[in-house]
Amino acid sequence: MKISVAGTGYVGLVTAVCLAEKGHLVTCFDIDKNKIEYMTEGKAPIFEQGLEELMIKNKDRIKYTSDHDEAYRHPDVIVIGVGTPEKKDGSANLQYVYDVSRQLAQTIENDCTVIVKSTVPVGTSDKVEQLIRDNLKHHVNIEVVSNPEFLSQGTAIKDTLNASRIVLGVETPRALEVMKQMYSEFNIPYVITNRNSAEMIKYAANDFLALKISYINEIANLCELVGANVEDVARGMGMDPRIGGRFLNAGIGYGGSCFPKDTKALHWLAKFNDCELKTIKAAIEVNENQKLRLITKARKYFDSFHNINIAVLGLTFKPGTDDLREAPSLDNIPVFLEEGAKVKVWDPIGANNFRRKFPSEIMYCESIEETIKDAEVCFIFTEWPEIRQFDIDKYGKLMKNPLVIDGRNCYALELAGEARIVYESIGRKTISNYKNAYSVVTSK
Ligand code: UGA
Q1: How far is CA 386 from the centre of its chain?
Q2: From residue 395, how far is each of 99, 181, 193 by CA, in Å?
Q3: % of the chain surpassing 70 pLDDT
Q4: CA quadruple 66, 70, 73, 76: dihedral positive or negative?
Q5: What residues of the chain score a pLDDT lower than 50?
């Protein structure tokens, strides 16, 4: 099939490449000409494992363009995969989705199925259909389908090619037929429903996962007070198949471009419809507090961070991506800087993006060793494999004051118990093997 994809962010580009991998002829459209040039050279504009390889492998089946006519005039299918950023009031900004809808309506010259893949509030596909019909220049038949994606950053290709389900929100048999043709090579079960339900599935799924994380984070905070270990608790809960073990890792909250935005958007949508989603509201509140949990822990040792040498390991919202959106590092590091700390940071991939936001006030290090050397406290914000595999004894050897405050439970307590460090983590007891730690830092 001839498929055009509008938007070349995570959703658009990954979808495009995976459709090409399955044999379709794909045209990627983006208004950003520099990005188009970059991708035409076979380079991926985002860091995503396996993406560039698939772009190169399928280069004969993928074109990149900023030309509306080339993208929208004659395809069988157009996928809308543009961003739906958060507005100030928490609702989703649909401007880009509507811009594409208007543009394609004015360009399209043959019958076509339009897929809304961006995460959009319930009812948006109906509006897209209306907008296209109102703006059509040629007499053609248009079908609009809601087909949300469930890919995660870092595993986006795998998640798309081996998805657990393909949700198809369709209103006509013809639209369903086209969708089945497009996905014929994927061998993934379908959930076939109407458009409103498909749009709701996406938000309900994401918000449930966010809720699960906030739930385990609250349990973790209580575990600390009552002497329980959240990892054991999560394992014991997760082995019940009705609960499931995934997304029960306690930490410093969820970040990224989806959960924070989608929880707020669904909460907003409910309010707009005169109802309140109390569970989602709670998940949002818990997450906001959890992001600063390590600072609360650090206050046991420091009244202020003035002149304190702080090491930060991990800047991105999760490992496997260079994405900083809603990352806890962005909430915490400004507090250190405002109080006059000397901050050294390390991240294997996200450092360059962070440097754009904080060009001069932070020292960027090339290794974990360099970052923690002479530090008086080390904060861990992202569970990169390099941090998990780092020799824990080195904290004791290299830091001036070996206090490690770990927001992602990177080390087993048994291991930490043998190291000459003070080790604080989430939902687990404090390890205190370095007697002078407290007095060293409070004597400042
Ligand atoms: C999320 C969903 O997992 C995808 O299914 C969905 O398609 C995507 O949003 C989207 O809507 O586009 P993503 O934001 O890439 O994917 O990342 P996740 O792996 O879900 O992690 C989100 C955040 O939750 C991260 O900050 C992570 O550290 C945190 N998390 C995750 C926890 O704190 N604990 C966990 O057990 C799992």
Answers
A1: 20
A2: 52, 56, 54
A3: 98
A4: negative
A5: 439-440, 443-444
Q: Contact 175/113 with Cβ under 8 angstroms?
A: yes
Known catalytic residue: 258? yes
Nearest to 373 by CA among 390, 396, 406: 396
Residue 367 belongs to what domain range? 293-439
The residue whose C-alpha atom lies closest to atom 8 belonging to ligand 1 is 152
249 lines ligand 1 (CB under 6 A): yes
| Secondary structure of residue 437 in the 3-state scheme | helix
pTM above 0.90, yes or no: yes
Phi-psi region at 90: left, alpha or beta (left = phi > 0; alpha = psi -120 to 50): left
Whether residue 444 lies inside any domain: the answer is no
Q: What SS3 class is residue 426?
A: coil
> Phi then psi for 160, rounded to 5 degrees?
-80, -45
Q: Does one domain contain both 182 and 210?
A: no
Question: 119 CB under 6 A from ligand 1?
Answer: yes
Residue pLDDT, tens place only, 297-332 = 999 999 999 999 999 999 999 999 999 999 999 999
**Dist. CA 420–CA 402, nearest whole Å:** 8
What is the total count of domains within the chain?
A: 3
* In a shared domain, residues 189 and 210: no
Ligand 1 neighbourhood includes 155 CB (under 6 angstroms): no
- C-alpha of 7 from chain center: 17
For 171-206, what is each residue's pLDDT tens digit? 999 999 999 999 999 999 999 999 999 999 999 999
